[in-house]
């Protein structure tokens, strides 16, 4: 019987109602008590390290989760992290970069309703996560929600209230959990060739700018004073506005001249970017050597940059690491 460590960090799954609304108050021991049937297929221990609404989650908390897994890695066969849904995709992506090549599963799960409610998705999500983490075919960082197993770099919350809140973006589901078993669509654990590696550094100075029509490019000038990298969410397959002033071209060129990193991505959820299609993207990417996210999710792009900039500031090394596939995060590179 596999030995699993369930790590509590808060979130809706652990909430109770207070005078100002739902607030994470339940302990990890309490959460585990709601799935007594797990004792039939695993030996689960619990550990509380945080009790936050995931809106308050920060990179320092991701580092704490990774350290907790590292500190207990040799003692357990798998890990389940209970987390709030609002920033779960960011946490799953961040942990994919902080814990690489893990032959042991690290599952992130949560719920749309607290676990002590009569009608809730929490108990089944937690039970499914413990079951998947106990499967010998499971490995690496994944999200489990509504019976679906999603690669940690491919998850996105697309619904605010429904139980099927998360989707896998530009990548198939790894597996589903149904009828008390995991059904794998990608059963490829035997391809792991490197030992597990933990990282303990992130650079949080990564900004996001979402383009809207007629936006003033001076926003980028302001960001350059405070951040080491910016991700520009452009329209469609990607490009920068070429207004008569040419401000965006000059603003981005300034970022590059300062030795800072600029990544282009798209506001469109599915199918990714391709700046080579239109003149508004092709020319500026070629001239300035901009990085492009292609089929990566925004959450993976943000956290991957934080991880990369925590390791190096060398432009060629940043480029190499950005286009290196980690936990299925990028498959297409133009």
Structural descriptors:
9 helices, 18 strands, single chain, alpha/beta, 334 residues, 28% helix, four-stranded parallel β-sheet
List the helices and strands and how they pair.
Elements: E1 2-10, E2 15-18, E3 21-24, H1 28-33, E4 42-52, H2 59-72, E5 78-82, H3 88-98, E6 99-100, E7 105-109, H4 122-133, E8 140-145, E9 148-151, E10 155-157, E11 166-168, E12 175-178, E13 181-184, E14 197-198, E15 206-210, H5 218-224, E16 229-234, H6 247-257, E17 261-266, H7 279-288, E18 291-292, H8 298-311, H9 315-322
Parallel strand pairs: 1-4, 1-5, 5-7, 7-8, 15-16, 16-17, 17-18
Antiparallel strand pairs: 2-3, 6-14, 8-9, 9-12, 10-11, 12-13
Question: Explain this structure to me?
Answer:
The protein has 334 residues and is α/β, with parallel strands linked by helices. 28% of the residues lie in helices and 25% in strands. The protein contains nine helices and 18 strands. The strands form five sheets. The protein has an eight-stranded mixed sheet, sandwiched between helices. A hairpin with a 2-residue loop joins strand 2 and strand 3. The longest helix is centred in the N-terminal third of the chain and has 14 residues. The mean pLDDT is 94.
């Amino acid at each position: 019987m596999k030995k699993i460590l369930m790590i509590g960090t808060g979130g809706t799954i652990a909430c109770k109602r207070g005078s100002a609304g739902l607030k994470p108050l339940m302990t990890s021991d309490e959460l585990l008590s709601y799935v007594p049937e797990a004792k039939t297929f695993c030996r689960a221990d619990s550990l509380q390290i945080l009790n936050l609404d995931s809106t308050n989650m920060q990179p320092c908390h991701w580092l704490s989760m990774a350290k907790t897994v590292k500190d207990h890695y040799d003692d357990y066969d798998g890990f389940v992290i209970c987390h709030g849904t609002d920033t779960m995709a960011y946490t799953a992506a961040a942990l994919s970069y902080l814990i690489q090549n893990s032959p042991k599963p690290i599952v992130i799960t949560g719920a749309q309703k607290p676990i002590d409610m009569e009608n809730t998705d929490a108990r089944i999500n937690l039970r499914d996560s413990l079951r998947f983490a106990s499967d010998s075919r499971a490995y690496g960082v994944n999200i489990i929600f509504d019976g679906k197993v999603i690669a940690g770099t491919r998850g996105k919350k697309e619904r605010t209230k429904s139980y099927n809140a998360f989707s896998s973006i530009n990548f198939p589901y790894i597996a589903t959990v149904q009828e008390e078993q995991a059904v794998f669509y990608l059963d490829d654990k035997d391809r792991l060739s490197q030992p597990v590696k933990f990282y303990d550094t992130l650079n949080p100075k990564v900004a996001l700018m979402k383009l809207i029509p007629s936006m003033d490019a001076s926003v980028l000038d302001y960001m350059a004073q405070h951040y080491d990298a910016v991700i520009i969410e452009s329209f469609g397959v990607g490009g920068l506005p070429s207004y008569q002033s040419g401000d965006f071209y000059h603003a981005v060129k300034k970022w590059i001249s300062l030795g800072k990193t600029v990544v282009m991505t798209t506001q469109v959820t599915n199918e990714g970017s391709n700046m080579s299609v239109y003149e508004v993207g092709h020319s500026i990417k070629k001239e300035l050597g901009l990085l492009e996210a292609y089929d990566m999710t925004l959450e993976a792009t943000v956290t991957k940059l934080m991880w990369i900039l925590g390791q190096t500031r060398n432009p060629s090394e940043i480029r190499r690491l950005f286009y290196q596939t980690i936990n299925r995060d990028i498959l297409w590179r133009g």
